[in-house]
Design goal:
Keywords: Acyltransferase, Transferase
CATH architecture: 3-Layer(aba) Sandwich
Radius of gyration: 15 Å
Strand order of the largest sheet: 1-2-3-4-5-7-6
GO molecular function: protein-N-terminal-alanine acetyltransferase activity
Helix content: 25-40%
Largest sheet: 7 strands, mixed
Structural class: alpha+beta
Protein name: GNAT family N-acetyltransferase
Number of strands: 7
Number of domains: 1
CATH superfamily: Gcn5-related N-acetyltransferase (GNAT)
Organism: Microbacterium foliorum
CATH class: Alpha Beta
Shape: globular
Distance between the termini: 27 Å
Pfam families: Acetyltransf_3 (PF13302)
Oligomer: single chain
Amino acid sequence: MDALTFRPWSAGDLELLRLANTPEMTAHLNGVESERQLLDRHARYLRLWDAGEARMFVIEDAEGAALGSIGFWNVEWRGEPAWETGWFVLPEEQGRGVASRALGLLLDDARQHRAGRRFLTAFPSVENAGSNGVCRRAGFEMVGTVTDEFRGAALTMNEWVFDLTD
């Protein structure tokens, strides 16, 4: 198994968002984003990192090739401050455990940067077996199912939580 590393999201990483913005990659996210939405998300990643409200990373292999992205950002969950995580792995890299290994590294980073937060949450679509499996393997607890609007349509998601103090 190849080693994985993270590097902070940078101004030059917009193309990685574009590579992930395909019908295949966004099937569980209510579809692709417009170019304007991609530009806004890219700028948000950079701005929130600078403000200490998020930690977004590029997942890289041992040679420094980008395999995907993972990170966490500030949310309120059940009335208290928490982090929420999300990730993607490029199609040609899927099925090799990249997301699971990246989430393990991210848990270490989230513990180090808790900033008073106890929980890391994740909300994959109920239909996204891969991401739900990643949560389960990482030791998250599924505590419910929620339906909310995402990208202009209803999305039903499993609600996973990981206690960063354990």
